[in-house]
Write a structure and sequence with these properties.
Layout lengths: L6 H11 L27 H5 L6 E8 L6 E7 L8 E7 L7 E5 L13 H5 L3 E5 L20 H27 L5 E7 L1 H12 L6 E5 L5 H7 L2 H9 L5 H15 L27 E2 L2 E2 L2 H12 L25 E2 L4 E2 L3 H11 L12 H19 L7 H5 L3 E7 L7 H14 L3 H4 L3 E6 L12 E2 L2 H11 L6 E6 L5 E7 L4 E5 L11 E5 L7
Parallel strand pairs: 4-5, 4-6, 6-7, 7-12, 12-13
Antiparallel strand pairs: 1-2, 2-3, 3-5, 8-9, 10-11, 14-15, 15-16, 17-18
Length: 522
């Protein structure tokens, strides 16, 4: 079956694999002390080829000429199904640091062997997987008869990452004659969801998990992502990019100074209540901003509402680029839905790859959202707040999410973390093993006009191995020449950074932590 990689999905995949990550969670210059005095391989490549792992076939063992590592490709199945989950493992021939690192994917892409190079150069034994299918399309969800392919759905949702972890750790132990002392998982977007899935379903797999912009609440937010297109189609009014950008810029200007510092960033957009009606009559490059424009923008910010005005899901924050969800194109202007949710609805919900989204009414949208939650919540939701087993075996998790995320509304992550706190004994006890850092002004790739986080993977390693919990993460903003022009601390939720009242507002040293009352979920 032909597969398609949408441009926005490609961006997610690049972030997940490290190609475009602006704040690499494991920088090439980061040092990770070796955990074993003897860390040389004890098996030849031919012997490694013969290692037996249940339901696993080792397809290839070879030296990668670009980094000198031993690369293993294996296929895992889950009898009685005839599925084929490809696993990619890289093992340093010298300088193994005694650790294993799993790497996540993006969109419907489970992962990529391209994500292995950075970690293996830092001494990690490391792995990734395609979670059972090739490419970024959701077409794997349907079999040849047009029915849901539940085995491949489960592989993509959670089984594939667990299989990669089991195979990767087994090969690491066989190759070096000793098990990795610590195992870590790093992922953004789908990778962030995969990491939290491991903590929820397989808490023995990893000691530390770094989860960026996690795609938890998958059936909820992904279905809800079509809301802007539904309301524009219903109103027969499509808002051009210039007007969407004008609304975002106006909201930033209105709420920027709420934290006491004017820097082009809304520190807490969940509390910004700017009304786009204030723009009515304003000139833009796409014409005058109208009442109809304001009505559409307001509904996007408010998020989907159902019959009787019931809350369905969160909207995008007021400093977020609206063009991913509310994209338009052509003349006359028409809707251009985000590819991932459109693919999701076509293959998973209506089970018709050629389904015409323009026929979708507001009422039908609500029914599809209900279906998505009921049918796929258990397999893809990844929203179980009970992390008792992960905590009790000493696991640590750091979650980061940009407050201007244009693909995954950050409010869903905040709500999930609050439920974790409630389940796990309150904020103080939860902070002993799990911390959430919210990143003002940054989008799904941790890009934006604000400092991006640095050293967060190193912080996770220190927490796991030395017991030093991260009370802050440093953010850096660089100019085009790479010079650091602003630093800012990120504090664990619900703390926020506030200027001390003296010193440069571009220097993190002059900011302190203040605790705010967390927003209340609708």
């Amino acid at each position: 079956m032909k597969t398609t990689l949408f441009p926005a999905l490609l961006f997610s995949v690049l972030l997940a694999t490290g190609f475009a990550q602006p704040a690499n969670p494991a920088r090439p210059d980061a040092g990770f002390r070796p955990l074993y005095a003897e860390n040389a391989p004890v098996l030849s490549l031919a012997q490694l080829r013969q290692v037996a792992i249940a339901n696993t076939t080792i397809d290839e063992v070879a030296i990668d000429p670009t980094d000198g590592s031993c690369r293993v490709t294996a296929t895992v199945s889950h009898p009685p199904a005839n599925d084929r989950v490809k696993v990619f493992i890289a093992l340093p021939m010298q300088g193994w640091n005694g650790r294993f690192r799993g790497n996540g994917g993006g969109g419907f892409v489970g992962g990529s062997p391209n994500s292995l190079r950075g970690p293996v150069l830092q001494g990690f034994a490391t792995g990734a997987t395609d979670t059972g299918h090739v490419g970024g399309s959701a077409s794997f969800a349907l079999n040849a008869n047009g029915r849901l392919n539940w085995q491949e759905i489960r592989d993509n949702a959670y089984l594939g990452i667990h299989a990669m972890t089991v195979v990767g750790r087994a090969l690491t132990q066989a190759f070096y004659g000793k098990a990795p002392r610590y195992s870590y998982f790093v992922g953004n977007s789908t990778g962030g969801r995969q990491g939290l899935s491991e903590a929820q379903r397989y808490p023995e797999d990893y000691d530390g998990i770094l989860s960026g912009c996690p795609a938890i609440n998958w059936p909820r937010f992904l279905t809800a992502a079509l809301w802007p297109q539904v309301i524009m189609q219903e109103a027969k009014h499509f808002v051009p990019k210039a007007k969407l950008d004008a609304a975002t810029a106006a909201a930033v200007a209105a709420c920027d100074g709420a934290d006491g510092v004017v820097d082009g960033v809304i520190d807490d957009p969940t509390r910004c209540t700017y009304d786009p009606a204030a723009l009515i009559g304003t000139a833009t490059s796409a014409g005058t901003f109208t009442q109809a424009d304001a009505d559409i923008v307001r509904q996007i910010w408010d998020g989907p509402r159902g019959h009787g005005g019931r809350f369905i899901y969160y909207g995008l924050t007021r400093d977020t680029d609206l063009n991913t969800y509310a994209g338009t194109a052509g003349s006359p202007l028409a809707g251009k839905p985000f590819g991932i949710p459109l693919d999701w609805i076509r293959h998973f919900l209506v089970q018709n790859p050629t389904w015409d989204w323009t026929t979708l009414t507001r009422a039908e949208f609500e029914l599809l959202w209900n279906q998505a939650v009921e049918q796929f919540g258990a397999v893809f939701g990844t929203d179980n707040p009970d992390l008792t087993r992960f905590r009790d075996r000493g696991g640590k998790v750091i979650i980061l999410h940009g407050l201007a995320d244009q693909q995954i509304p950050v409010q869903g992550t905040i709500e999930y973390f609050q439920r974790v706190q409630q389940q796990m004994g309150g904020a103080r006890r939860t902070a002993e093993f799990a911390r959430l850092f919210l990143l003002p002004g940054l989008n799904h790739g941790f890009r934006g006009p604000a400092p991006s986080p640095t050293g967060h993977f190193e912080a996770l390693v220190r927490w796991v191995e030395d017991g030093v919990a991260p009370d802050r993460i440093l953010g850096e903003l660089r100019d085009e020449a790479g010079k650091v022009i602003r630093t800012r601390p990120f504090f664990p939720f619900p703390q926020v950074a506030r200027h001390s009242g003296s010193g440069s507002t571009d220097d993190a040293a002059h900011f302190v932590a203040r605790e705010l009352t967390p927003p209340v979920a609708p």
